[in-house]
Amino acid sequence: MRIKLGCRISFEVAAPTPMIFLLNVHYSRASDLERPDLLRTDPAVPVEAYRDVFGNWCSRLVAPPGQMTVSTDGTMQDAGLSDPVGLDAPQIPVEHLPSDELGFLLPSRYCESDVLSDFAWDRFGQTPPGWARVQAVCDFVHGHIHFGYEHSRPTRTAVEALNEGVGVCRDFTHLAVALCRALNIPTRYCTGYVSDIGLPNPIRPMDFAAWMEVYLGGQWWTFDPRNNDTRFGRVLVARGCDAADVPMVHSFGRHDLTGFEVWIDQIDEDTGANWQV
Q1: Is residue 156 in some structural domain?
Q2: What is the tally of structural domains in the chain?
Q3: What does residue 93 show for φ and ψ, rounded to 5 degrees?
Q4: What is the pLDDT of residues 5-14, one digit of tens each?
Q5: Which helix (H) or strand (E) holds 246?
Q6: CA triplet 131, 112, 135: central angle to 5 degrees?
Q7: Cα separation of 240 and 177, whole Å?
Q8: Helices (H), the chain
Q9: How far, rounded to the nearest angstrom, does the alpha carbon of residue 158 sit from its chain's CA centroid?
Q10: Which partner from 75, 144, 199, 271 sits 20 to 30 angstroms from 53, CA to CA?
């Protein structure tokens, strides 16, 4: 299937303000892009692109005083498949993990896996290791946290999400990431587009979303504790240890958000839908 995706973010700054944006489709999906989702600015300013330590595409610029809009708009091919499932994917003992994945076992800014270690083992230590254990974590987080944009707080950590029981998708993901790491499962935080393709009705206005990837059986698998269901048209933008590594917008100075719009839609074709589980 073909997908149209992009975003439009408007803000106002009082003085020249350096900013970094992580808004472009991840390089791992670059070959699927029919029309690249190039970053555009209004007014036009010089933009420098680079990759961060995780390989994410980043764009840096200096926003001039006043109103500014940053946008992307692209089209891409997608196989129409749901997130892969590997029910038999085993958990790899820490001593046998590749060295490159060990960093995703450690506590991070928003994922205090060390603080949650006792809770995680008491709650999930009797579940079968591997896929079933990760799914048990997702089931718990999905049922424990009440979703609501009114509960959004950019500084909420995994421990606070557990104690408060409210949050948005990043809070679901931070808690699940921290619990999995506490259980010795390498886990990384992801952001991007999660579409409503294949669902009977859109649930809410589109937004960027957070989910996680866990390392089982020698490869990374997608889990989504916020939605905890079958999804099509998931498109990665960035991944890291937690939200501190992959903010959509990082401003080195005050900026006031004045507009925010995200879209990801299937392009209608004569062949119709082709979703496959």
Answers
A1: yes
A2: 2
A3: -55, 145
A4: 999 999 999 9
A5: none
A6: 15
A7: 11
A8: 117-124, 131-144, 158-164, 169-182
A9: 15
A10: 75
Q: Is residue 166 part of a domain?
A: yes
Phi, psi of 20 (to 5 degrees): -125, 135
Please give the Cα distance from 103 to 181 (Å, whole number). Answer: 10
Paired tokens of 120: 């995680």
Burial 229-248 (b: 16+ CB within 10 A, else e): eebbbbbbbbbbbbbebbeb
Residue matched to tokens 């046998």: 96
Indicate whether 177 and 225 sit together in one domain.
yes
User: Per-residue pLDDT tens for 136-145?
Assistant: 999 999 999 9
Same domain for 103 and 232, yes or no, is yes
Residue 117 has which token pair?
Answer: 């270690």
Q: Which of 252, 164, 207 is nearest to 9 (CA)?
A: 207
pLDDT tens for residues 54-94?
999 999 999 999 999 999 999 999 988 889 999 999 999 99
Q: Is position 273 within any domain?
A: no
Contact 47, 20 (CB under 8 A): no
Q: Report yes or no: 236 and 28 within 8 Å, Cβ to Cβ.
A: yes
Q: Which helix (H) or strand (E) holds 194?
A: none
Contact present, 83 and 222 (Cβ < 8 Å): yes
Domain membership of residue 88 (yes or no) is no
DSSP letter string, 51-118:
E-TT--EEEEEEEPSEEEEEEEEEEEE---BBPP--TTPPPPPGGGS-GGGGGGGS--SS--TTTTHH
